[in-house]
Amino acid sequence: MSLSDLFSKKLLIVTGKGGVGKTTVSLALALAAAEGGKKVLLAEINSEEQVAHLLEREPTGHREVELLPSLWSINIKPQEAFREYVLLQIRLKSLTRAVFGNRLVRNFIEGTPGLADLISIGKVWSLVDPYDLVIVDAPSSGHAIALLKIASIVGGAVRRGPLKTHADEIDQLLHDREKTVIAAVTLPEELPVTELFETESALRNQTGLRLGPIFLNQHLDRFFTDREWETIGSRAPQAIQVQKMRADHSEFYAERIQQQFPNQPLIRVPFLFSTSFGLPEIEHLSEAIERSL
Amino acid sequence: MNLTEAILKKKRLVLCGSGGVGKTTLAAAIALEAARRGRRSIVLTIDPARRLASALGLKELLNEPKEVPLSQCQGRLHAMMLDTKRAFDHLIRKYAPSPSACEAILENRLYQEMSSMISGSQEYMAMEQLYELNSRPEFDLLVLDTPPTRHALDFLDAPQKMAHLTSSSLVKFFLMPGLFASRTGLGLLQKGIDRVFEVFDRLAGLNFLKDLSRMISLLGDLLGGFHQRAEGVSQLLKSETTGFLLVTGTASITIQDALFFRQKISEAGLPFLGFLVNRVFPEVTRSEMQKIAGLPGPLQNKLIEAVDRCRALSLRDQNAIQVLKKMGGKKAFCQTIPALAEDVHNLEGLMRINEFLS
User: Fold this and answer.
1) Bridge partners of residue B247, in order along the sequence
2) pLDDT given for residue B184 in this prediction
3) A51 has a pLDDT exceeding 70
4) What does pTM read for this prediction?
5) Burial bucket for residue B44 (CB in 10 Å: 0-12, 13-18, 19+)
6) 3-state secondary structure chain B
7) Strand B40-45 relative to strand A211-219: parallel, antiparallel, unpaired?
């Protein structure tokens, strides 16, 4: 898969274990797409907003803001998205207010199984049309599966009404392989790679969705040859030993991932030796991704 | 109070922090350290790495404490893994008034699909377990590894939220709309309620809502006493014998999260003890540099280049630690655990970490 293949889709959902760098990779991808001339929306879902923070901008909250040329961002909040949705369906402000002003209803929305997920993925679905590409910085793996599954559950359980129609349409979009790609981010470490394998099989078995490209983040190339390392032996400082392990693991886990998924593109996102992390670092990663895809 | 004192004196240690920072590993290491120092500890973990799980004897998903065999150790270590779905099933079996009520809910299609998805159910179960384990006399110290929540302290109000949901009048209303209005004396509000009713009917149809409500209401009847337990958990967490530890990495995003957590812990009036800064990049010492001296020239230069490249990382981490120390408050400690040149996934690995816990 080339970068232009990837960016010709409408919806790119990025998942992975907590802490693997989903936001960083999503942002690097969004930047590459925006620089390639696409109007891109990067959507975080109900998170402690990170995208705006990385770019040293004010949080966007639940509204679309253009943070960089052609790169928009939103932090989807289920409560607000639900209000929008009900208003759209009912078309009566006073009635919508009556519903949402009700504490009982609020408790119900917060607690009802899957409702927040359905509303969030529904909001994503509604944003696909106005943009060339929507990139979703999805919740971590387990929760992402729930997010991808909810439309089909609701579509199956609800018998009539707009909720059913919309749930079915959302599910269709997610399963449309011309339009939607699911990407995963992982690290050259045991836990994130195990979780990648589990996510892939859960996706297949529980949602019938296929995993697309895999981003191996913080990948470090070997610096010393085996022979050099032998000569250095126990004289290696602790810091260099830690780096050596990362390089070894980068090679080891890249191979394991490729063995497991021989047909999927594996993109190595380089480990950065930098003190701070902001736009220049993200640009660097973005270029590295462009080169390797 | 430093970390060692906390490990020796507290009755409950709660480890929180964002995903991927090493909460589970550190929770296990802390419980192990307590056992080595003679206490009877239990670590309640959410989702350990498979190899760590097997090192802790948690190969099977059991919602029961299992003892981890330790040699030459005065105390005892137990471990327990939380599986939300099973824990829910277990809770329902335990509290169901009759076998038929129990079956009714376990077989409810919506329940099966959703029991693990009920928002906050993992957090809720973690709190239930904490409450239950706390009442058992065989443990001196509970170490709780919290679920990786997107919202810092979701687990704190999880019991309250569950209580709200299951006792939600809206649920009752979906089941018996007429009765609801007259019984609760909300007759005057009938008009408003009718409108709410109308909105939900238009959106999804009432049958679905009735199914959903039936499930939630069954759950509420069975589990009962939510409010009371929620209150109990809240008191436990605020108690002086509990301590909150914030686990963090050193990347800027992670530090940002940690500071946010720190603020939330204070706001919630919880006893914050300090930060555990995990995987701090080691600084290259002078004696390490001296050791390099004997190597052949070109290789020496290459090593120096590698060391130079790493300086940015040590600097990043030292900066991060400074920020945490400044923001942590006077009484809080900031315990650093260096990045190791090995993956930690067994008891020996945990012992290596323990060297840095005091």
Assistant:
1) B276
2) 46
3) yes
4) 0.88
5) buried
6) CCHHHHHHHCCEEEEECCCCCCHHHHHHHHHHHHHHCCCEEEEEECCCCHHHHHHCCCCCCCCCCEEECCCCCCCEEEEEECCHHHHHHHHHHHHCCCHHHHHHHHHCHHHHHHCCCCCCHHHHHHHHHHHHHHCCCCCCEEEEECCCCCCCCHHHHHHHHHHHHHCCHHHHHHHCHHHHHHHCCCHHHHHHHHHHHHHHHHHHCHHHHHHHHHHHHHHHHHHCCHHHHHHHHHHHHHCCCEEEEEEECCCHHHHHHHHHHHHHHHHCCCCEEEEEEEEECCCCCHHHHHHHCCCCHHHHHHHHHHHHHHHHHHHHHHHHHHHHHHHHCCCCEEEEEECCCCCCCCHHHHHHHHCCCC
7) unpaired
Q: What ipTM did this prediction achieve?
A: 0.87
Contact check, Cβ <8 Å, A238/B151: no
Whether B196 and A239 lie within 8 Å, measured CB to CB: no
E-only strand ranges, chain A? 11-15, 40-45, 65-68, 71-76, 133-137, 180-186, 211-219, 266-270
Contacts of A221 (CB under 8 A, 6+ apart): A247, A250, A270
The residue ranking higher by pLDDT, B186 or A98, is A98
Contact A140, A16 (CB under 8 A): yes
Q: Which residue of B has its CA nearest to A187?
A: B20
- Closest-CA residue to B351 (of B3, B29, B20): B29
List, as ranges, residues 280-309 from B with C-beta within 8 Å of A: 281-285, 288-289, 291-292, 294-296, 299, 302-303, 306-307, 309
B18 half-sphere exposure, CB direction, 13 A CA radius: 27
The mean pLDDT of A217-232, rounded to a whole number, is 96
Residue B71, number of CB atoms within 10 A of its CB: 5
* Tokens 């029991």 found at: B115
Residue in B119, B205, B292 closest to A235 by CB: B292
Q: Is B191 in CB contact (< 8 Å) with chain A?
A: no
* A71-76 β-sheet, strand order: A65-68, A71-76, A40-45, A133-137, A11-15, A180-186, A211-219, A266-270
- Per the CB < 8 Å rule, is A112 touching B165? yes
Residues A17 and B184: their CA atoms lie apart, in Å, by 46
State which amino acid sits at residue B130.
L
Give the domain CATH number at B34.
3.40.50.300
Domain with B203, as residue range(s), is 3-354
Q: What is the mean pLDDT of residues A192-204?
A: 93
pLDDT in tens, A79-114: 889 888 888 877 666 766 666 666 666 666 666 667
Q: Which residues from chain A sit within 8 angstroms of residue B49, using beta carbons?
A: 190-191, 194
The residue whose two tokens read 């010492």 is B285
* Helix B23-36 with B347-354: angle, nearest 10 deg: 80
Mean local confidence (pLDDT), B240-253: 93
Q: How many CB atoms lie within 10 A of CB A285?
A: 23
CA distance B61 to A92: 50
Number of compact structural domains in chain B? 1
Q: How far apart, in whole angstroms, are the C-alpha atoms of residue B108 and residue B211?
A: 9
